[in-house]
Amino acid sequence: MTFMHWSADLEIGLEEIDRQHRWLFELTNRLHDAIDSNTTVQPGIEDALEQLVDYTMNHFIIEEELFERLGYPETEAHKAQHNVFCRNVMDLLVRYDSGDIVNTEMLDLLKNWLLHHICTVDKAYVAHFRAHKVAPNPLTPEPKPVN
Ligand SMILES: [Fe+2]
Ligand SMILES: [Fe+2]
């Protein structure tokens, strides 16, 4: 069963960011499947968690670099949301490492936070990006002029 379904209303309209958000959903689904498979093979869960945390941190860095570059006025507030999420995930990881069962809490946090953050907080930067004429793929460098 798919844990998180991607739908068109989650798209913010910036190609590369949407691709990253879809991949965050996919990684969350992989973590869910690793947990759901109910095996005693912990590395499956740990690998899925590690990939998800790494990718999420990279995604945040990419967004935050774009904010700095484009002078987004809500940069600090947005970063604060990313930081709260990181802290919450780290707290759960510490508990996981000490033997607590945090599977449901982790999946709930990911699902609720990602949905809210993408639909509300990330969507809020799109108008500013567009006003600064950011292309659909903001990470692609401008093509170099041909001599
Ligand atoms: Fe995002
Ligand atoms: Fe964000």
Plain-language structure description:
The protein is mainly α. The chain has one domain (13-131): Hemerythrin-like (Four Helix Bundle (Hemerythrin (Met), subunit A)). The protein is 68% helix and 0% strand. The longest helix has 29 residues, at 42-70. It is elongated. 14% of the residues are buried. The chain binds fe (ii) ion (2 copies). One fe (ii) ion binds next to helix 2 and helix 4.
CATH superfamily: Hemerythrin-like
Q: Helix-strand pattern, N to C?
A: HHHHH
> What's the architecture in CATH terms?
Up-down Bundle
- Bound chemical compounds: fe (ii) ion
Give the % helix: 55-70%
Runs in which pLDDT lies below 50 for 5 or more consecutive residues are none
Share of residues in strands: under 5%
pLDDT averaged residue by residue? 90
| Name of the CATH class | Mainly Alpha
Round the Cα radius of gyration to an integer and report it: 17 Å
Number of E strands: 0
Structure at a glance:
By secondary structure, the protein is mainly α.
Task: Write the SSE topology.
Layout: H1 15-36, H2 42-70, H3 75-97, H4 103-122, H5 126-131
Helix pairs in contact: 1-2, 1-4, 2-3, 3-4
Bound molecules: fe (ii) ion (2 copies).
Residues 63, 78, 82, 117, 121-122 line the site of one fe (ii) ion.
